[in-house]
Amino acid sequence: MVQNIGNRLIQTISHQAEKAGYFCIAENISSNQKVHELRRGFKRLRALLRFFKEIPDSPAIQLNEDIRNFGKLLAPLRESAVNVELFEKEISLNKLLPERKIRNARELLVQQNKLLVERGFLENNLNNTIRTFFDGFESILTKKGSEFPSRVQLFREVSKSYLKSNSVYHQLPASPHPEELHELRKKLKRLWYQFDFIRFLHPRYFKMKTDQLNKITDQLGDDHDLHVFIEDAVAERRDFNDEEMLILTNQVEHLRQLNQQKLQLRLKQFFAAPPSEFDQKLERFFKL
């Protein structure tokens, strides 16, 4: 079982690395979509590379850090693209705001995104740097003498991910700050990707759990996107006066409140099992 899980893990990581390389050079995909796919793949890779944490001198540790740094470089580009999407979806039809100002603000957002992508992904050659990084990724991870995680180490990592997520959730105040919800999202994203990898151990249970996490992390992502959007809008203003900015802020906060009402129930359902009960299930699935 150890060898089977180890091989499966390497194959899954290698597949994600190949996908990252592909998105860097694909010609039929927009740069914004490439950035989105890369960041999503980076999060999955980092969640899987954490299975190597307990292995001394594993190359996975440095690979994880390098991928994290790439993700940080791409974050402002992705946020600018999401700002455009949110503006078009939620703000562009607001009848309380002047059409001219809406049109001008949209054009400014599009121009800002285009500039960021050109400078931060294409002109600085980051796309090729990332592609080169993932060339031979598997050979680095599996270099001679490198160890694969044992099933006990896999169990411990998933157990820690659940425990940390559970702790962050139960420490949330009644009215959590957007950054506190964002921290919970990062923990649950990691858990989602780890569940998705080990779902073959118990397909029925982990399908239910990954479905729950998919909805929860999407909602947490929506909350963070709205928060980033309104912070950018307040900082840049884009010709909106104080009254118009108040209308804009109230609209975004209302969307966040509606989103969080559904979110809280789903979080409560997901964390119904305490960590000790979850660990007992996990031990049976891993046959420990």
UniProtKB/TrEMBL annotation:
Q: Name one Pfam family in it.
A: CHAD
**Family matches, as PROSITE patterns:** CHAD (PS51708)
Domain CHAD span(s) in chain numbering: 1-278
PANTHER family hit by this protein: CHAD DOMAIN-CONTAINING PROTEIN, SLR1444 PROTEIN
**Which protein are we looking at?**
CHAD domain-containing protein
Source species of the chain: Mariniphaga anaerophila
